[in-house]
Write a structure and sequence with these properties.
Strand order of the largest sheet: 1-2
Number of domains: 1
Radius of gyration: 21 Å
Number of helices: 14
Order of helices and strands: HHHHHHHHHHEHHHEH
Structural class: mainly alpha
Largest sheet: 2 strands, parallel
């Protein structure tokens, strides 16, 4: 992404009786018919408690000195916290920052702000994910979700290096490391970039204020996750550091595998930014063509990752809570078929993982 203002990209007009108009009407009709809200329900609230507990309960056991009993349990608790970060990120924080969790803005802001105490920064996340990724999905230079540095080539339009021939082998390690990079460097890098290209200004916040806020969050985060356990957990400092790293390796790998399986696939189009910045497809069709679902029949998967195995539905209806996606998928799939739009889905998580690895290999060799 350049240091200047973002290029103006215009999607084609949807037109009357378009795919998007039709699918929106049918989804709205569904909620009217079953007479339920589009936001969270008891299932969502119960899940929220479970996900928060998955992170904070192990943490309190660690600082309570569980390492004095068993280092094996000590490290396992850090790993469980890695799963907790993933669950909170995909199920709780994600919906909240999309304003899909509740119709109450305060609740959305509080739960979305949990990201700030998990090492991230919610203001950055809303810009990168809500604005850039959800608008410009798989567009080189605009969608930061397919930007992973020089070692990974996630778009056919990115410069290919010789090392990319092996990316399908080493990508999994880099996926894990990405979370450590996120909580240490990436947030600052993104914030400076968003200040340069005017995205912070659009959010009505100054770069100085954002940098100060971010730094305070980081101090708090590293203070309670590393400094506090070093002093009171009763184990050597390097065990705390290694546990912290293990937690983020787990979270990084899981989060990458969840999100990359939806977009870096052979079925995705990866359109180039066209001349005069006018896209051939309208926004909704663009989302469907560059997104894929996986493991739709796995209730455990859908529960843990916040329905993000239904990424097509999420990209079309990000303001609807993910607990409704399994039902909405039937409507979206039927409508896509009627409009002759591919509805891409992999039957299982392992199949999707295999297809993603094949795409990484293809991008590394083609």
């Amino acid at each position: 992404m350049s240091n200047n203002a973002l290029p103006l990209v215009k999607f084609a007009a949807a037109g009357k009786e378009s795919f998007y108009d039709t699918v929106k009407a049918r989804v709205n009709e569904y909620f009217t018919t079953v007479n339920i809200p589009k936001h969270g329900n008891l299932t969502m609230y119960t899940k929220t408690i479970a996900m928060l507990a998955m992170y904070f309960v192990p943490y309190f056991l660690i600082v309570a000195g569980i390492g004095n009993i068993s280092l094996v349990i000590f490290y396992l608790l850090w790993i469980v916290m890695g799963f907790g970060i993933t669950g909170i990120g995909t199920s709780v924080m994600h919906d909240s920052n999309h304003e899909a969790y509740s119709n109450n803005s305060f609740i959305n802001n509080v739960l979305g702000g949990v990201l700030n105490i998990l090492g991230g920064y919610s203001r950055n996340w809303k810009i990168q994910h809500n604005i850039l990724h959800h608008t410009y999905t798989n567009l080189e230079g605009l969608d930061e979700d397919i930007e992973a540095g020089i070692l990974l080539r996630m778009s056919p339009h990115k410069k290919k290096l010789g090392i990319h021939k092996f990316q399908h082998i080493y990508a999994w390690l880099l996926y894990g490391i990405m979370n450590i990079y996120w909580v240490t460097v990436k947030d600052y890098k993104c914030l400076l970039q968003y200040g340069k290209n005017g995205l912070l200004k659009k959010q009505k916040i100054s770069l100085r204020y954002a940098l100060t806020e971010l730094t305070l969050y980081k101090i708090f985060y590293f203070g309670y996750t590393i400094v506090v356990p070093i002093f009171i957990a009763g184990v050597a400092w390097y065990h705390v550091v290694l546990g912290f790293i293990a937690m983020h390796l787990v979270a990084g790998l899981l989060l990458a595998c969840i999100f990359q399986l939806a977009h870096v696939m052979e079925t995705s189009e990866f359109p180039e930014l066209p001349e005069q910045s006018k896209m051939q497809n309208n926004w909704a069709v663009h989302q469907v063509l560059n997104t894929a679902n996986f493991a739709p029949d796995s209730k455990i998967m859908s529960w843990f990752i916040g329905g993000l195995n239904y990424q097509i539905e999420h990209h079309l209806f990000p303001h609807i809570c993910h607990v409704h996606y399994p039902k909405l998928s039937q409507i979206v799939k039927q409508t896509a078929v009627e409009y002759n739009i591919p509805y891409n889905v992999q039957p299982t998580f392992m199949r999707a993982l295999k297809e993603h690895a094949r795409m990484l290999k293809k991008l590394g060799n083609n």
